[in-house]
Amino acid sequence: MIHCLLPLIVLFGSPAHPTSDDEPFSHVDPFLGTGGYGHTFPGAVMPFGMVQLSPDTASRDPKESYPWCAGYRYEDPTILGFSHTHLSGTGHSDLGDFLVMPMVGEVHTDPGPEDRPDQGYRSRFSHDLERAEPGYYTVQLLDPDVKAELTATTRVGVHRYTFPETERAHILMDLVHAIYNFDGKVVWSSVTVHDDRVVTGYRQTTGWAPDRRIYFAAEFSKPFKSYSLTREDREHYYFRERGVRRQPVGAQTFSGRKLKLVFHFDTEANEPILLKVGISPTDVAGARRNLEKEVPHWDFERVRHEAKTAWRQELDRVRIDGDRATKQIFYTSLYHASIAPMTYCDVDGRYPGMDGCIRNAGDHLNYTVFSLWDTYRATHPLFTLIQRERVPDMIRSMVRHYEENPRKQLPIWSLHGNETYCMIGYHAVSVIGDAYLKGIRGFDVARAYQAVRDTATHPDYDGLHHYRKRGYVPIDLEPEAASKTLEYAYDDFVIAQMARALGRKADFRAFSERAKSYRNVFDPVTGFMRARLADGRFREPFDPFRAAWAGDYTEGNAWQYSWYVPHDVQGLIELMGGRHSFVTKLDRLFEVETDEEKYKEVDDISGLIGQYVHGNEPSHHIAYLYNYAGMPWRTQERIAQILSVMYQTGPEGLAGNEDCGQMSAWYLFSALGFYPVAPGDGVYVIGKPSLPRATIQLGGGKTFVVTAEDLSPENIYIQSVRLNGKDWPYSYLYHRDIAVGGSLHFEMGPEPNRAWGSDPTRVPPSMTETSKTW
């Protein structure tokens, strides 16, 4: 294929839509995080879109699925094909629906081994001939010598395959392929070939989402001359050629657990064949309507341009100054934080409810993929600043989930109309309460609060009845008991704040008392949060360094979880013996030697600084806790360290799972200079800005401008702060200070200003008063 290399280099090096280096769009790198532990995908997706049309690079045993959670891994040498649904940065695998792959020459219906792509339909590729931007992906498939291009609308994936001259061009549609694949994942599938252009079908799968149905309607730009079918690994041929009548005649439907179709074409040199695929969670009719409504034409470049326009609007929500690497990390983070949750309804509003009934969201969007254990921390608080118009629909979606769920619970980790019950806590209440307390409306507040309260008083969920009875979750009755106690206590704090705002005085008192339950798992002898038995004793033996699946803690150990009291840091300082003891132990967290052998059971733990684990969420608020002890300069040092070590450009630029936007949202807030330690308290704790200037579009014509004077790699310390031109001696901001618009100005220097933010009256608020701990 040397003869075509030069034109390919020219083609791939020249974008069809040139962009200015100054605009955010040009700085997004969809490959960032596709290597290492980031688990992102590089393919085409619209903001919060239902379709994520992206390459899949490996088919592995389910026991080895963790590196391929997003389907694509930068290190892999071959591509299997392009599927229409993916998860962004999760630590679990699923989806990968309706894989499409072009072929030339011999027909294959099995992917074949990675080291022998000629034995299957997979193809080698080179990163030199691969490129991606928001809403568009392209790669040259070396084995068939086909250029693949992908773009998408919200519900439709559009493919363009440019073939060489051949009488043996093929396009495969594999309904067996899945991410996290195993025998029996596809429960049933069906395909109907309507004519020589249109194909529809569906499949039902079980996996992380235990019962999921997804439908498609596909249309080719060129009639196929024939097609062949493999069903249950047995090959059947059905021909349909223009000018030749061969049976079967008319639309043909095929059903089974293992269906693969190959469509056959004659092509001229450099002839493109387009394929557009609408998907739907409801039925084939919905998929056809989605296809007809969103892409009623065959203009690939128009779809690509519309996707680019949508992404430009999203990325323009924050404008920053900075060097090229900083802009790439920042805008790629903003891009990743705008992928999930994803739209989960047809163009007419229909979607499948948790109860299996088809419902209608009306003129509102229904969303799915709420990775709430991760995203309540920073992603959803980010939405309350820059996506305020979307937040009401997200809350409506959560409340609908509660109403349709036979268990009458808000989502824990929702996926395509399913509840996975992955992770712990009931953090939808944090998202709802935080939004309400920030003044966001547009949803039924009374229904939302009822859902919040019912979820927090559920009689049968993860040891919650034990927690209500004893004030803690007993480890001999429920796994991960220490973590569950701590996370329930935080959620209860948010409920208490919402109850107070609604005038629900009895609930305010009850949930405020429950929010103190973190004290029941603190061991004053060891100074750690520990799991207790039902009889009240702490579990023995105790190793604060060990992390284990279904152990005392969730994806962490005592070193990380002992700081999880975001709503009452002053109370935690009191338990630990005062602020100096607190800071000494906090320093040790970052400095104590790491023994990775203690983490071998837990894949998700990565990005370590001592025992601080930035690659996993329980650590994300910890660096900001120095502020509560009146030592904000220590927070500034830690944030500078984390930003420089854990976020880089390139495929391995993320230290851990992106987790549906949480890793990115942490970066966005921290680069701006503040972070929501305890969503629901209306406070952002000031850290260290990393941008000379940032303008945040708040909606309604309001902006909040953050500037950092004399910022440099050496000048990491805040000398002074001005809010709207006035001196600001506090080491925190209220949400209302930002939401009304205005300016925040930092003056930076090379040495700490130990006076700023050190006064006990100027540290961030907690349930426990500062005067009791100092």
From TrEMBL:
Any Gene Ontology CC annotation: cytosol
Region (Disordered): 752-774
Pfam families on file: Glyco_hydro_92, Glyco_hydro_92N
Alphabetized GO MF terms: carbohydrate binding; hydrolase activity, acting on glycosyl bonds; peptide-N4-(N-acetyl-beta-glucosaminyl)asparagine amidase activity
Superkingdom of origin organism: Bacteria
Positions of the Glycosyl hydrolase family 92 N-terminal domain: 27-280
PANTHER family (alphabetical): PEPTIDE N-GLYCANASE PNGASE -RELATED, SECRETED PROTEIN
Name by which UniProt lists this protein: GH92 family glycosyl hydrolase
Lineage: Bacteria, Pseudomonadati, Acidobacteriota, Holophagae, Acanthopleuribacterales
